[in-house]
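Figure 6 in text form: structure in, sequence out.
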């Protein structure tokens, strides 16, 4: 059964609320990966008056479960939030990034919570090119349980001193852009690094699968 609630803990939502409320973020807000839209509703509710609510953009392939887009829209309606105030981009994140870049879009807030695979997370980090100075970016599942999220972010932060650590609540990491970038935040080397680790993880998973199968066969 699909839950309409955010896929985040109370602690993570509290962190989100604090960062949003103190961030003075007026430009577009983006969520990459929305599931049933629970966190989207929570984010929009942080701006109770439509007059001060920034434009919200959602990027999602909407294939997480049946009728996902309709469920998200119903969730917004259940919270008395205007469905037409959200710009839904039903497309893979990489394609949406090409379009947003070509249109010269900028964001004050970006929540990255789509695929947790290492090469996809590294690819999603390219969205930070479109984050305004002073803007915030949050990443869900930044923890040792999700190396696919943690490792690319650690590498990104080491190589991009123009972003500062704003805080962490549970597995939700928040960073802030302090200055413009002088070069691409994610380069070809970063992408290749992520591809190699993806292959390594895949190999590890298939060895574990075979070993477990052998163990089970021995027991029977
Ligand atoms: C973990 S859920 C998001 C949870 C949501 N942010 C929340 O807090 O309730 C992941 C979402 O990412 C979407 N997704 C996964 N890979 C994607 C991709 N490459 N491009 C766009 N959306 C993607 C899935 O369809 C799913 O809705």
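Output sequence:
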């Amino acid at each position: 059964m699909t839950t309409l609630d955010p896929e985040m803990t109370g602690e993570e939502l509290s962190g989100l609320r604090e960062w949003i409320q103190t961030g003075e973020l007026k430009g577009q807000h983006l969520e990459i990966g929305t599931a049933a839209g629970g966190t989207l509703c929570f984010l929009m509710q942080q701006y109770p008056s439509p007059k001060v609510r920034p434009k919200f953009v959602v990027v999602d392939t909407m294939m997480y479960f049946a009728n996902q887009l309709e469920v998200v829209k119903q969730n917004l309606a259940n919270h008395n939030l205007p469905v037409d105030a959200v710009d839904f981009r039903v497309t893979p994140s990489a394609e949406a990034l090409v379009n947003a870049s070509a249109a010269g879009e900028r964001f004050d807030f970006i929540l990255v919570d789509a695929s947790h695979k290492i090469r996809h997370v590294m690819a999603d980090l390219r969205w930070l090119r479109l984050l305004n100075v002073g803007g915030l970016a949050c990443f869900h599942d930044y923890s040792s349980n999700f190396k696919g999220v943690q490792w690319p972010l650690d590498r990104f932060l080491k190589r991009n001193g123009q972003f500062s650590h704003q805080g962490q609540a549970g597995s939700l990491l928040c960073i802030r852009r302090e200055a413009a970038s002088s070069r691409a935040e994610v380069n070809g080397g970063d992408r290749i690094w992520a591809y190699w680790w993806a292959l390594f993880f895949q190999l590890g998973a298939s060895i574990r699968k075979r070993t477990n199968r052998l163990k089970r066969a021995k027991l029977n």
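Caption detail: The helical segments are 10-23, 38-45, 68-78, 93-102, 118-124, 147-159, 188-219.
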